[in-house]
Design brief:
It contains 3 helices and no strands. The chain has about 80 residues and is mainly alpha-helical. It has a domain at about 10-55.
């Protein structure tokens, strides 16, 4: 079993890591803002086909399901 001191030490280390990560992200963004903002239009253009690919996966299935759920030839009167 872990003692409470070890758990507190791991928790403190995690907060230090998160603080370091926040500072690193802030400094990278402020120093490379021109690069990040310069690529932004291309990211929007890339998002269009990705959204089409992942969000429109249900198109075309409605007609096929309606056909399969209809009555079969043997049941028609």
């Amino acid at each position: 079993m872990s003692d409470p001191h070890e758990i507190q030490h791991l928790s403190r280390g995690r907060w230090v890591f998160y603080g370091f990560l926040a500072i690193a992200v802030f400094l990278l963004f402020t120093e490379h803002r021109a690069h990040v903002l310069g690529i932004l239009p291309y990211l929007f253009l890339l998002a269009c086909p990705l959204m089409h690919l992942f969000m429109h996966h249900g198109h075309g299935d409605d007609g096929q399901h309606a056909h399969h759920h209809g009555s079969s030839e043997g049941e028609q009167k």
